[in-house]
Specification:
Nucleoside Triphosphate Pyrophosphohydrolase; three-stranded antiparallel beta sheet; eight-stranded mixed beta sheet; 19% helix; alpha+beta
């Protein structure tokens, strides 16, 4: 894991990864014991419209988080090794390759955010930050698990017109993004929101603008 050679625009993200505290990212923090160790890859690249982020849409038939937009990632396998060592990094890259077909050799890991918790599935998630130094083709490897894989310009994520608040049936409110004909919400939107904030990319937006989870209905 190294920050050497990062583009200048990514340096605020690397700096935030070194200094941010878990409670600054989410109110859902890992329990003292239990939880399934997992990792997601938050992969930044340079596209035709400037800096961009890799996302995927989960298949609608999945048992958990069906149809949601997410980062590539999943639970650690035994071959990934120690979750307190480099196991999280290996898991993030392995899962990204399995789900999107990207070449992990072209990804430079430059940071890891504090681990967070997803109560509904019991996952303890390490957000692994990557720079797509040498981009490679990508696609939905298994349509039974992934509906599509795509990149979103960071400028679209920071555009106030694309930002909103969702209200879960439980009453929990959280940030959301309307991009690429889809609604990004939940864990993924929460992490993107905090990265944008702590990187200094945030622009004033209407927090009173609410979007229902069934916004397409």
């Amino acid at each position: 894991m190294t920050e050497e050679g990062l583009p200048e625009w990514l340096e605020p993200v690397a700096r935030a990864a070194r200094t941010v505290a878990p409670e600054q990212l989410s109110r859902f923090l890992p329990p003292e014991r239990g939880g399934r160790q997992s990792a997601v890859l938050i992969l930044f690249g340079e596209g035709t419209h400037g800096p961009e982020l890799l996302l995927m849409e989960r298949a609608g038939s999945l048992r958990s988080h069906a149809g949601q937009l997410s980062f590539p990632g999943g639970a650690l396998d035994p071959e990934d090794g120690d979750p307190d060592g480099d196991g999280l990094l290996r898991a993030a890259l392995r899962e990204a390759e399995e789900e999107t077909g990207l070449d992990p050799a072209g990804v430079q890991i430059f940071g890891v955010l504090p681990r967070l918790y997803i109560p509904v599935s019991g996952f303890v998630v390490a957000p692994v930050l990557g720079w797509w130094r040498s981009p490679s083709p990508f696609h939905a490897v298994d349509p039974a698990e992934t509906a599509r894989v795509f990149t979103v310009p960071v400028a679209d994520l920071t555009d106030p017109a694309n930002r909103a608040t969702t209200v879960h049936p439980s009453g929990h409110r959280g940030p959301a993004f309307l991009v690429e004909s889809a609604l990004v919400w939940g864990f993924t939107a929460g992490v993107i929101d905090r990265i944008i904030h702590f990187a200094g990319w945030e622009r004033p937006w209407d927090r009173g603008k609410q979007v229902p989870l069934d916004w397409r209905s």
